[in-house]
Design a protein that fits this description.
The structure is a homodimer of 259-residue chains.
Chain A: H1 3-17, E1 19-21, H2 22-29, H3 33-45, E2 49-52, E3 55-58, H4 59-63, H5 68-72, H6 76-87, E4 95-98, H7 102-110, E5 118-121, H8 124-133, E6 137-140, E7 143-145, E8 152-153, H9 155-162, E9 166-172, E10 175-177, E11 181-184, H10 187-198, E12 200-206, E13 218-221, E14 228-232, H11 237-245, E15 249-253
Helix pairs in contact in A: 1-3, 2-3, 6-7, 7-8, 9-10
Chain B binds a DNA duplex (30 and 30 nucleotides) through residues 3, 22-23, 31-35, 37-38, 53-54, 256-257.
Chain lengths: 259, 259
DNA sequence: GCGGCGTGTTGGCCATTGAAAGACAAAGGA
DNA sequence: TCCTTTGTCTTTCAATGGCCAACACGCCGC
């Protein structure tokens, strides 16, 4: 294997995994740790990675002050691309609803360039992020604080959502399948999403391509409930065609290209 | 795991939870407390967190929430005493409402020994603190997220409070005076407090003695609305007598003495 | 064959970590 | 209020493992 090939593979892993260890790379590429260090040195001189004790981290992600939660997340590049694409649908002054979840959080970060937004969300993380990074008016639904992730659910949350009508709701989904429709894993969230769908003129679902064809156990509703689906380039063209036949606008977010 | 990954993870938790304990981190990240302390030291040198005894707090919130920070440090001993005294009024299994503010936050900390509580609050900080330190069921009122301090106010918050009836409400106050009654500085909070008073069987006001005789501009209501006042030893005995003549139970918290 | 290049190996050095001991701070009881 | 107890912080030390520099080896083209 050529040195340059190996370095590309290393960069690829650093990008997808955010960080990498020298021993892991040496192991999987069947070269010595010293070779890996020399490769990382070369990549660092090109400004592509940053070396740290024991390995290296993605230089680009490291530059920004993004939340760790995002970096750690699998398929973060896809989600970031989806978040950026979704933010393009938002105009200054819009009133939108934002869901719980990592994709939604990345989306909120992409909203920092917008002005005078009104955002309603059940996610504490999203609310605090928006408060820090933007001038948005943030309305938090009430509800019972969940254990696993800081968001609010239950009767109060649903009642709060019903008080509003938003121009666009941005929803996450655990699964998108042609037969079962939109599904998810947490039934508490599902109920809230149903309400969110009802109180929005336009429904946009954010789901990376790994969710396509997946049937999670709690059903949110049929596919026709969504007006727009934003996903990444991993979407099968046949799936895309079928979705478009149902009248759903499918936007494929291009992952930002790396030099 | 790389040291830098661990530090990012720590930072993420500090940001979302506002504060964190060394032992909790050591436990969940499976490293020794010494390693965590070194990580926190590194993060502190980058200006990202501020170390405190037992853990660390979010530096950004400290800097941004200047007002809150000041209130946090001022008369903290008295507030802690008041919080502890107030916690004595709470039984396992109680359903209570908790207000916004530093005193309320200290009170929530003192609730860690209680079990199976149900707490309703408009304060994000209080909610996250309770989620972290106790097994309480936490219900957050909805509402508009405020700029200066993370709590929720407005129509939604009031509507949410009206959905409940609690055995005891714990209220903060900016001023307690015999003529103007209970007053405060933020009119948004005042409206919410009025509602909180209405939906509680017992009303307990937490106010350190510096608030006595103070008339802040927004009126919450007459003194007779409160059943119990918890304050510190700085309370004038004449004031205490007059309050007791009004049928208010006055509890004086003994501040732990500092060497 | 010879020099350049990339790679592996080796030994010394340094960074990170965890354990232990003593100092210090906080909480609770007499 | 004082003292005890408990928990936390700091310092020090040893061990582990990663880093670096130097050198040897093999491959390739000339």
């Amino acid at each position: 294997m050529l040195a340059i090939e190996r370095q590309r593979m290393i960069l690829d892993r650093v990008v997808t995994e955010s960080s990498i260890r020298v021993v892991d790379l040496a192991d999987s590429l069947h070269v010595s740790g010293e070779t890996i260090r020399r490769d990382l040195l070369a990549l660092e001189q090109q400004g592509l990675v940053r070396r740290v004790h024991g390995g290296a981290v993605d230089a680009r992600q490291d530059a920004g002050d993004r939340l760790f939660q995002e970096r750690e997340t699998i398929r973060i590049e896809e989600k970031r691309a989806i978040g950026l694409r979704a933010a393009e649908l938002v105009q200054d002054g819009d009133i939108i609803a934002v869901d719980v979840g990592t994709t939604a959080l990345v989306f909120c970060e992409a909203l920092r360039s917008k002005r005078r937004l009104t955002v309603i969300t059940p996610s504490i993380k999203a609310a605090l992020l928006l408060r820090q990074t933007s001038d948005a008016r943030v309305i938090v639904t009430g509800g019972e604080l969940q254990e696993d992730e800081p968001y609010l659910a239950g009767y109060l949350a649903e009642a709060a959502l019903r008080q509003f009508h938003v121009t666009r709701a941005f929803i996450s989904a655990g699964g998108i399948a042609l037969d079962t429709g939109i599904t998810d894993y947490h039934d508490g969230e599902v109920q809230m999403r149903k309400v969110m769908l009802q109180c929005a003129s336009q429904v946009t679902v954010l789901a990376d391509s790994s969710k396509m064809g997946v049937r999670a156990f709690a059903v949110v509703g049929p596919l026709r409930l969504m007006d727009t689906l934003i996903t990444d380039a991993g979407l099968h063209s046949s799936m895309q065609q079928k979705l478009e036949q149902l009248g759903i606008e499918v936007l494929v977010a291009e992952a930002p290209v790396r030099k």
